[in-house]
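ok here's the first one, seq then struct tokens
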Amino acid sequence: WMLDTYVMHKRGFIPGVITGKPIGLGGSAGRHSATSRGIICCIHKAAGHLKLGLRGATAAIQGFGNVGTHAAKFLSEDGVKIVAISDVDGAYRKANGIDVDAAIAHAAAHGSLRGFRGATRMRQPAELLELPVDILVPAALENQITRKNAARVRARIIAEGANGPTTPEADEILARRGTFVIPDILCNAGGVTVSYLEWVQNRMGYYWPEERVARDLQRIMEAAFDDVYATMRRRRVSMRIAAFMVAIRRVTEASEIRGLYA
């Protein structure tokens, strides 16, 4: 609707003014799963630094919408056991791994995980965050990991798929415990990255197959992770602070190069 309104006023088709469009209106292949692909890129990089083999590793995913379902699918394809998933209607756990395809099919058919029989329903959904897993993907709401429960979070890697799932107080606790937190500003940037790639394709008037989009997304996400990780090590700060430092540095450098009109 926003695209249609704009082009009708401009009297010309200019698809690059907005992203996330359907393919038929100049959208990009791979946009639907882009946020999750970015998350997986970051998890791969973090696991490499921690010398954590993904095949046989365990993961819990809070939130089973677009981001959570794709993250579960991609992780399971890497050999990770998804031992717990949740959505607004509850959390489900299975120690030897949930059949992700069955869970996705159930959610698609019923609108939620309610009644899913492929795992045991947990009494307290919030306990999913405290399970002894290698990877935790909070992909639901903000303020889920707080000073009240951070000390009980046992995951080695927290990959923030949601915006702001960890409070500043919880960040300090997790840092003291040695938890590797991939901050939202980096971890869930896959969606906006492919929005950028969509804009580039719109400007070119030439559209790439999903394989090309996924390859470019991976290259950009890995470079961003490496930059943040290097800053984290050099400055001896958290990954979140390092991400902010990288962002501010880029803006500052661009301003200095360009010069400021006075």
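and now the second one, same deal
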Amino acid sequence: MKSLIYSSLLLLILLSFTTCKTTSSLDAVSIEKAMVNAMLWQEANPIYAKAPTDWTNGAYYTGVTRAHQSTQNPAFLKALKEMGQRNKWQTWERFYHADDVAISYAYLYLKSLGIEGVDLKPTAQFIDDHLYKDHAWRTGIPDKDQKILWWWCDALFMAPPVLTHYANQTGNKKYLDDMHRYYMETYDLLFDKEENLFARDVRFQWKGQADDRKEANGKKIFWSRGNGWVLGGLALILDAMPQDYQHRSFYVKLFQAMANKIKVIQPEDGLWNTSLLSPESYDHGEVSGSGFYTFALTWGINNDLLDQKTYTPVVKKAWKALMACQQADGKVGWVQNIGASPEPATKDSWQNYGTGAFLLAGSEILKLK
């Protein structure tokens, strides 16, 4: 029931803020207030594609996790704990599918805080099955898109950050090594070294043939949210990856290469279009991809992987544009619907992963100096 989220604690938090649609400055109070309002609206308007433990909620609650980590605001922690209890700490059902463990990012965070009652057994079972149980995707299915375990670029947000955190919590480096092995498969299959962007899957790989998929302007098709999944996932991975991990330099270099590309193609209004190299295809910005980029680029600044002077104007412009997409009641619009390629959005289109991207962005913007 929608009203359950509005506890006396959350009402007090709401009353301490004033409504703000957008801000040109990085005022911490306004930013945190916008984040709380976004979360409260989303909690009161739950939505998911398949189940409360699916990837859409996984992405949303990753945003809630990082929001709490940045602010220590009890509203975010309350939402996380109630979600875990409702879900009985379960993942979703497809052990072979990276999407279905994304929800565990929040569970692992709560466990790291010592929250009583967190049960990581379902997560542990999923991870072992995902990495070691036989499935056709491991060897590839002939004439299908499923050539490898993580055959779509979105997967690089869903499973690798969870596996990196799990390796840390268990103290077992094999999970990090296995993450790297499967990550490299996806990189080798889908990364375009000319454009420093990821194809969403093999359907969008460019081979220079007449029947290749391409935009009307002749450019390759690179989906904004797809690359947002990757760049946001890289920030989450690097945030948890040990500094002395033998393959860390690969992730740093990939992060920096993609960050530079995203910086260069940022539209003047601040939000990236759904088709990165063909902004004219849908002549408006989109929040989910832009939120992930804003999060990742700001994280890079805050962690000395990106030049502050070069990238700060980029993320400030993006955050201002993101704030303008939040409505007075907290709802975050201009989110492309569930899909696997560039499509349009509207001021009223929303999804929980769009709210998650907004929260991720705010969680790092708050730290920007």
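notes on #2: Strands lie at 191-192, 197-198. The first strand starts at residue 191 and ends at 192.
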